[in-house]
Amino acid sequence: MVLSAFVISQLVFDVALLVLFILSAIRAKPQPARPARPPDWYQELVPLIQELLLITEPILDALETQALPAGDTRPRPSVRPEATRDTPSAPRHQEALELLRAGVALEEVQRRGKFLPGELRVMANLVAAEAAPGAPAVG
Question: Would you list the domain boundaries of the chain?
Answer without folding.
Answer: 89-131
